[in-house]
Structures are given as C-alpha cells and as structure tokens.
Amino acid sequence: MFWGKFWRLMFLLLAATLLLVTGLGAWLASDRMERVAQIYDEATIYETAAGPQQAIVRGEGSPVLVLHGQFGGCDRGMWLARFVGMDDTMEVIAPSRPGYLGTPLDGRISAEAQVEALAALLDTLERSKVAMLVEDTATDVALTFAEKFPERVSNLAIVYGNFTPKNQRALQLAYDYRDNWKAKFLAPLTQIVAKMAPASWPEINATRGFPIDLRLPGMIADGERLSQTCDLPKPSVPALIVLNSKQREQQGNDFDNFLSNHPLPPNVIILPDVDFYSPEWIDTAKAIREFLSGSAETPEQP
C-alpha cells in the first residue's frame, strides 16, 4: 500500500511539473511575440543608401543620435534616452545597429562600415548635424563617426563606455548566450523577473531587451570587432565621458592612454559604483542633458 501511494504522489507531482513547465513555456512564447510586436510597432524600417535600417525617431527639438551597446537595439536606445531625460527635450534618433533586431548585419562588423550606415540613415532623415549619446560597445563606432564626420557632431556623451584595446569580454559574453545552456536558461528567467518588477527598478526593466536571439548577430559582431580594436580615434569634438569608479579602475591605463594627447580633452565624470536611480546618477543625467543640448558646460571632475 505504501508504494502504491508513493507512486501516485510521484505521478501527481510529475503531472503538475509538466503542466507548470508547459504553461510557463507558453507564457514566455506569448510574451516574446508581444515584445517583438511592440518593438516593431514603435520602430520604422528606413530604406537608406546603405540598406534597410530600423530606428525609432521621436520627440521635437535638436536631434540626438543614441547608439545602444550590447544586448541593444532601438528599444535600448530609447530606454537610455528616456533615462537620461532626452526624450522630453530633444528629438531622439535611436537606430538598431547592424545585426540587432530589424537591421540586418550584412557583413557590417567594422566601425567604419557602421559609421557609413549611420551617415546614410541621417541622410535619409535629412539631419545634417546631431548630438550623440552612446554606451558600452558602441564607443568605438561613435568615436569613429565623430572623427570622420566632425562637422555632423555637435557634442558627444559616452556613458559607461569601453576604452580597453582588444577587449575579449563582449565576445565571450555573446558566445555564452549563444552556446552556454546556463545563459540560455538565465535569459528567460531574467525576462520573468523584469516582467514582474515594478517600474521603479529601471536597471531591471532594462533587461526587457530580450528576446536575445534577435540581437545575437550584432552582439557577436560587436565582440569580434572589439577583440581586434587596438587604438581608438580621438575626434576633435566636445565630449563628456561618464564612468563609475569600478569601470575606471578596471580600465586604468587604457583610459589614461585615451585621454593623453587628446586634441580636445573630454570632460570626465567619475561616479561612485551607484544604482541608476541614485541621487548621484540623477545629477549626472542632468549634466548629460545640459551638455548635449548645449545649455551648459560640464566642468571636469577628478
């Protein structure tokens, strides 16, 4: 009798587990479809001289070109613009860089190829000059754009950028999400947490950048490019760089080398290792807005 009850209990537990997994899988698939539909509803595919490019263009005022980093896309660019507060004060142009979401990679891995694509997008939008707000793995692309087209860039703000030559981190991270079962498991798990998180948790809500499969070609391309990048351009445009103390320590001499012999030394803000909603970050977001809009000069900080 004992074993009969035991096996019935095991059967019920197995059935409940299967129902839970099936229901969770269906919910994730539905949420994925909803997320993709939302992105494509907000964005437009522009036919440019460099091929089709996806972008969200929103707001009024002076244009700011926002370039996302890894795990990015036009939705991440809009998130960054909103979090800095640019979406209420300037016209935001947030493209999906090649390989992300609706912009095909088409072999455009190098910074030079991505710069040509961005210039073609701005030509299509008839924007001759923009401010630039960029993050993470887009650092080298933005610097290359500002060096090649200084007449098209009024100001450049780099938030949590990458200044380390031959950086392997981005490539390893992309490969992890492509090949590692743990990363594949964490991706939907993070999506669940993000879905349930309150709006007051902006850094968790930023993980709504999933589904990851639509971003992997761009993530791998970024990683391959950065793993081979030796020297970063030093354009002669007004620039503001924001790093936290941990990143500053990690990038150490590499960041110092970037600043040395710069034709127009950037303003630098070093934050403590704080959350995005901390008072220090709120003050920094204001400084970025004022810098990009040209309404104030941002003093250099140690």
Describe the structure.
By secondary structure, this protein is α/β, with parallel strands linked by helices. The protein is 49% helix and 17% strand. It contains ten helices and eight strands. The protein has helices spanning 2-42, 74-84, 111-125, 139-148, 169-179, 181-196, 202-205, 216-226, 245-259, 279-293; strands spanning 44-48, 51-58, 63-67, 91-95, 130-136, 153-161, 239-244, 267-271. It has an eight-stranded mixed beta sheet with strand order 1-2-4-3-5-6-7-8, with helices on both faces.
Uncertain stretches: 199-209, 296-302
How many structural domains? 1
CATH-assigned fold name: Rossmann fold
Number of helices: 10
CATH superfamily: Alpha/Beta hydrolase fold, catalytic domain
